[in-house]
Amino acid sequence: MEIRPILATLRKHKLTAVLLTLQVALTCAIVCNVAFMIMHRMQRVSVPTGIAEKALSVVAVRGIGKDENPWARHETDLALLRQIPGVESAVAVSYSLPLDQNIASYGVCPSQAALDRAMQRMSLQGSGCAQASMFDGSPGLLKTLGLDLVAGRDFRPDEYVKGQKDVAVAIISQAFAQHLYPGESALGKEMAAGPKHVVRVVGVVRTLLSPVLMNKGTDYDTMIWPQLPSDAGVEYVLRSAPQDRRRVLDAARTTLLKADPSRIINPKRMQTYSQIRAQYFQRDTTMISLLFASALGLLFVTALGITGLANFWVQQRTRTIGIRRAIGATRTDILRYFQTENFLIVSFGVLLGVLLAIGLNLLLMKHYELPRLPLWYLPVGAVVLWLLGQLAVLAPALRASRVQPVVATRSV
Amino acid sequence: MFGYYIDLALGSLKRTPVLTALMVLAIGLGIGASMTMVTVLHVMTQDPLPERSAHLYKPYLDPLPLKYTGDPLGNDPRTNLTWPDAMALLHAHRAERQAAMAGGNLLVWPQRTDLQPFYVDGRYTTPDFFAMFGIPFVAGAGWSTADEKASAHVVVLDQTLARKLFGNDAALGRSVRLGDISYRVVGVAADWAPKPLFYADASASQFSDSDQFFLPLSVAVDNKLSINGNISGWGSDGVPNNLTDASTSWVQFWVQLATPAQAAAYGQFLVDYSAAQKSLGRYQRPATNAKLYSLMGWLRHENLVPDDVRLQMWLALGFLGVAMLNIVALLLAKFLRRSGEISVRRAMGARKRDIFVQFGIESALVGVAGGLLGLGIAQFGLWSIRQRPDDYAHLASMDPSMLIGTVLLAIIASVLAGMLPAWRACRVPPALQLKTL
Fold first, then answer.
1. Mind listing the pLDDT tens digit for each residue in B94-117?
2. Is the pLDDT of residue A343 over 60?
C-alpha cells in the first residue's frame, strides 16, 4: 500500500486528523493507566489470609452487665454452640481476625539485647525489633481457623492466661519469623515483648494475614498469644460446611439468646467470613467496577469518534473514490486505503499516547502512591487501540468500497 | 435572527440524526460522570457550620519527644491534646469561648419495659460547647461551670433519644441511666449534626455520626468512661491509656475567637504556652510548632476526602476531555462539509460573524441536549453512590446550584468545543467554494 497519497490527503484535513490523533492519544494514556489500576486493585482484593475462609462464620456478642467470670460464660456458650448441627468447631476471640479491621499490634524484639537497643533509641527502627498484629483466642483456634502449622506445636492447655496478662509462649507467622530471625529457625527462640516479658516461640504457621492492610512488607507479620478473651464483648468463630453458614449463624443467635437474653447480638455483626472480607474490600471493588466502566466508556466514545469521522470522509470523497474505481482501483484497494489511513492516525495517536501514559503514571505515582506502570502495558494498550480503530473504521470503509465507478461520471 | 439560526441548527442536526445522537451521548456521558464526582467532592468539602465557621479555631500543640518516630497505625498523636494541656487552655480562658471534648459510646438503660438496653454515641464536653457551636435547645440548657467542677451527673439528650426514652413526656428533670451511672436530664437539644462532624476525633465516621447525648467531661474522666477515638501514648513508663497522663493525647479542643487580631493573639498565646512547657522540661520540640487552625483550614489539613474520590473525579474529568475532543473533531468535519452552504450564505452577504454565531448556536444546542442527558446520568450516578455503604454516601445529592452548574458546564463545554469548528467554518471564502458547486 502506497502511503504517500494518504499522507497528502491527511495534510488537507490537518486539523481534524490532529484532533482525532489527540483523542486516540488521550484515550491510550488514560486506558493504560486505568487498566493498571484495575490490576493493582485486583491483586489487593485477592490477597490470601491463610485461614479457611469459606468454612467460617462469626457472631459478635456484647454483654450489658458486669460479668465477674466471663471465661465460664464463654465456655458454656462454646459448648452450646458446638452442639448446633453442622458446627464442626467453635472458638472465642476478643475481636481480631484477618481483615476485620480490629487490630491490636505489639512491638516485639528477637532478644533482650535488641529490646535494650530499641529502648535506647526510643524506636523500633534499626534495632531488629518489629511490630506484629496480635491474635488471641480460646483453645482450638488453629484448628478452627484452619491455620497451617509448619513447625512446632499448638498451645498446651496450661499455657493459656486469662485476659491481658503476660503470656509465656506464642505462635508466630512464617513471615514474622523471618523478619525477627532472618536465616534461622524461630522455633524455641525467646522474644522480648517488654522489659521483663519473655515469650518463647513454640510454633510457626505458614500464613496469617493482619486485620488491617498497611504495607506489603509487614501485612503478614502476625502472632498468636494464648490469651483467653475476657471482655463482656466477644466474638465466636464457627466452622461449618460453606453452605451451612447462614443457618448456623441464625441457630447460634437463637442458642445464645436463649442461654442469656440480657445481651446484645447485632444482626449486622453476624457475618460469614466471606462477608467480612467483602466488607473490607468494598471500596476497592467499587473502584474496580468504576474504573472498568470508565475505560469501556472511553474506548466506546473514541470508537464513535473514529466511525463518525470516517463516515464523513467517505461521504465527502465519494466522487474521488468513484474516479479511482473508474481508472482501475479494486474494491480491496479502496478498503485498504481507508484502513491504512486509520492505521496511520491511530499509530500517531498511540505514539503520543505512550508518552502521555508514562507522564500520567508519574503524576499518579506522585499524588496517589501508585507503583510504576509496567512497560508491557504500553504495547498491549497500543494493540487494543489499533484493533479498536480497525473495527471502528470497518463499516465506513466497506461502504466506501461499494461506491460504484459510475459515480465519477455523475455531476453533483 | 436568533430564531432563524435555531431553525437552521435544528434542521442541520436533524439531517444527521445518528451523528447528533452520538455527540449528545458522548457529552452527556462526560458531563454525567464529571458532575457526579464534582457533586460528591462538593458535599464533602462544604462548610459544616456556615454562620460560625469563621470564628471557630482548633489549637494544635506539639508535646511529642524529639525522638518520637511515629505511631504504628499512622495516626498523628498531636491531632488531639493531652488532658493537662486541654485543662490548661480551658482554665486560661484566653478565648471568648473554649471547650474540651471527646466522643463516647454508652449503654442506655430505658425505663420503658418494652425497650431493650442499647448503645448510643455521644460526647463528653465542657459547658461552653453548646453556646460556642450554637446548638439549639428544645428545652432546658447545658450545664454550668459549677456542675462541671463538681462532676455533677447531668446530661443533655438530643431530641431523638429523648423521644425514644420518654415518648412525648417532658424529658427535663427526669433521670436516665447511661452505663453504670444515673444522670439528671438538664436539657434537650434539637437534633444537630454538622457534616462533617468536624469536632470529632479523626477516627470517627465524620459524615454519618451524630451525638445523641452530651455529659460533663469531668464525669467521664472521674469514672473512666469508655472513650471513642484515638488514644495515643508516647510515655516511656509503659502505662498506656491513662487518660490524665501528660503523654497521652485524646482530647479535642475548640475555641471561639471574634476577630483575626484575637486569633493572632491566641496563636501567640499557644507559642508562649509551649515555650513555658519547654522551659519546664515537659516539651522538647520548638515552641513555634504550636499552631491555631481555622475550622476550614483544619478540615483541609485533615483531608477528609478519600484519595479514591479524588481519583474518580480526575478520571471523570479526563473522560469529559476526551468526549469534548471527540465533539470538536466531529463538528469540524460536519461544518466543513457544509462549505458550499457557507459560501452561498457568505456570497449573499452574511458576515463572518453571522456564520460564527450560526454554528455556535448549533454546537450550543448539542450542549443543552447533552447537559440534560448528563443531568439524568449524574442523578443516576449519585443514586448509585447513595446505595453504597460508604460513610459519605448518603450525602451524595445535588443542591440547586449544582443542578444549574451541570447544565452550564455542558453548554460551556460544547460551546467551547464548537468554537474552533465555527471559527474554521466562518473563514470559508465565498467565491472559491461557489465555483466547485
1. 999 999 999 999 989 888 878 888
2. yes
- Are the C-beta atoms of residues A247 and A46 closer than 8 Å to each other? no
User: What residues of chain B lie within 8 A of the CB of A302, using their CB?
Assistant: 322, 326
- Sign of the alpha-carbon torsion through B17, B20, B26, B30: negative
Q: Same domain, yes or no, for B258 and B390?
A: no
Residues B266 and B310 both lie in one domain: no
Chain A hits for B388, CB-CB cut-off 8 Å, are 282, 286
- Residue A86, min C-alpha distance to chain B (Å): 31
Prediction pTM value: 0.81
Cell numbers describing residue B425: 467554518
Q: Which chain A residues are closer than 8 Å to B322 by Cβ?
A: 23, 26-27, 30, 298, 301-302
Residue B418: which residues within 8 A CB-CB, separation 6 or more? B327, B328, B331, B359, B360, B362, B363, B364, B366, B367
Residue B147's contacts (CB-CB under 8 Å, 6 or more residues apart) are B127, B154, B186, B216
Contact flag A214-B73 (C-beta cutoff 8 Å): yes
pLDDT at B434: 61
* Confidence (pLDDT) at A1: 61
B155 shares a domain with B119: yes
Given an 8 Å threshold on Cβ–Cβ distance, is A264 in contact with B118? yes
Are the beta carbons of B236 and A194 separated by less than 8 Å? Answer: no
Residue ranges with strand state E in B110-230:
118-125, 137-140, 154-158, 175-178, 181-189, 213-216, 227-228
How distant is the Cα of A88 from the closest Cα of chain B, in angstroms?
32
Helix, coil or strand: residue A343: helix
What's residue B71's pLDDT? 65
CB contact under 8 A, A304 and B319: no
Are A166 and A194 a contacting pair, CB within 8 Å?
yes
- The answer to whether the peptide bond before residue B196 is cis (omega within 30 degrees of 0) is yes
Which pLDDT does position A54 carry in this prediction? Answer: 94
Give tens-digit pLDDT for B294-326: 999 998 888 888 888 888 888 888 888 888 888
Are B266 and B313 in the same domain? no
- Prediction ipTM score: 0.78
Counting one residue from chain A and one from chain B, the pairs whose CB atoms sit within 8 A come to 120
Looking at the structure, tell me whether residues B346 and B283 fall in a common domain. Answer: no
Angle B321-B324-B328 from CA coordinates, rounded to 5°: 140
Q: Are B283 and B413 contained in the same domain? A: no
CB atoms closer than 10 angstroms to residue B404: 11
Q: How far apart are CA B259 and CA B95, in angstroms?
A: 11
Domains of chain A by residue range: 4-45+283-409, 53-280
Tell which of B239, B270, B302 closes a domain: B302
Structural domain boundaries, residue B76: 53-302
Q: Name every residue whose Cβ is closer than 8 Å to that of residue B335 and which is 6 or more positions away in sequence.
A: B342, B359, B421, B422, B424, B425
What are the grid coordinates assigned to B323, written together? 468526549
Question: B18 and B85, same structural domain?
Answer: no
Largest CA distance in chain B: 99
User: Rounded distance, CA B256 to CA B90, Å?
Assistant: 12
Please tell me whether residues B165 and B271 are part of one structural domain: yes
Task: Give how many domains chain B has, as a whole number.
Answer: 2
Chain segment B322-353, per-residue pLDDT in tens: 888 888 888 888 888 888 888 888 888 888 88
